[in-house]
Amino acid sequence: MNASDPYRPVRTFRAFEQVSARIRELLSSKDLKPGDRLPPERVLAARLGVSRNVLREGLRSLEIAGLVIQKRGGSGGTFIAAHSLSSVTQVFRDMMSLGAVSLSEANEARALILTDAIELACERASEEDFEAINENINETAVRLGQNDLESQIKAVTRFYELIAVAAKNKVLVATIVALTRTLSQFYEDSSPRRQLSADSPQRSQLFLVESRRKILKYLRERNPKKASQEMVLHLTGLHQYLLVNSKAAVPVRAASAQEQSTPNLIERTTKSLPKTSSAAKRRAVRGSVPKRASRLT
User: Which neighbouring-strand residues pair with 77?
Assistant: First the structure.
């Protein structure tokens, strides 16, 4: 068979794939929206012209993808899932667990994306965004003085999510949140159960908190150049610390139910600020990412 033949036989999809494809089409056309309940299994199978077993298999594939949820009981059924970042996060976690993406690559990608996000935040952030970031910095300073690794990581990583929210771009939010949660879980799974600043408490806390206060200062001043430069310096120290305190390879667990929430965004399109040259930015970020631990396996 000639693979370049434009009239080669078409692929025959399995029945359950057609079921999931049909539901996806209804989602794309807005005929189905988050929270909508699908018809009962018997009715839906008849309308789609498939057996109930095939329908269940199709719905199961959609459930794994995070598009539907199935509830039991009298008020149960199959519902279109609310928007969640857990499936995006799980994709990154699976890629790192399988060794398809290295720790250095994930760090480099997040650094590049964050420098763009912080430039947008300089233009678009509101006073409410600034207050949320300031509160997070204060909380981080408190958490770093406590012996609770989980609370420390939650406070530390929330900072990057707030930067993404301030940029007012939902794609940036999804990407930054997914990468940040993946990297934070890697650190949590691969580190001894101790506080982040255990090796040198005062120095680590001072670096992390003061660097973030500088970033917030430049955000308030609407200074994208200084804000992005400080972010690169900030990530340099954090990434080096993560590598020093992490094992070479660790399993990454599935996304928790607590990670289902997505920050509400102000849906507004504005022009981007003039940015530093892309080449210069890439050189700065690449220089900030240590070359050790290039692979997880």
Answer: 71
Topology of domain 15-80 in CATH is Arc Repressor Mutant, subunit A (1.10.10)
Place of tokens 């012996």: 147
CB 141 within 8 A of CB 212: no
Model confidence, pTM: 0.66
Query: Read out DSSP for 46-68?
Result: HHHT--HHHHHHHHHHHHHTTSE
Please compute the mean of the pLDDT values over residues 91-98 and round it to a whole number: 86
8 Å CB contact between 187 and 247: no
Q: Which amino acid is at 35?
A: G
CATH assignment of 86-288, among 1.20.120.530, 1.10.357.140, 3.30.2130.10, 1.10.1790.10: 1.20.120.530
Interatomic CA distance for residues 280 and 282, integer angstroms: 5
Domain regions of the chain by residue span: 15-80, 86-288
Q: From residue 193, give the alpha-carbon distance in Å to each of 61, 89, 246, 255.
A: 36, 23, 12, 20
What local confidence, expressed as pLDDT, does residue 191 receive? 56
Q: Rounded to 10 degrees, what is the CA torsion of 128, 133, 137, 140?
A: 110
Residues sharing a CB contact under 8 Å with residue 135, sequence separation 6 or more, in sequence order: none
> Residues 116, 168: contact at Cβ < 8 Å?
no
Position 160, amino acid:
Y
Structure tokens at 215: 């970033």
Comparing 15-80 with 86-288, is the CATH topology the same? no
pLDDT in tens, 136-148: 999 999 988 888 8
State the pairing for strand pair 77-80/68-71: antiparallel
Identify which of 149, 135, 125, 90 has the alpha carbon closest to the alpha carbon of residue 270.
125
- What is the per-residue burial (b if ≥16 Cβ within 10 Å, else e) of 85-96? bbbbbbebbebb
pLDDT digits (tens, 9 = 90+) for 108-132: 899 999 999 999 999 999 999 999 9
Rounded distance between C-alpha atoms, residue 277 and residue 99, angstroms: 32
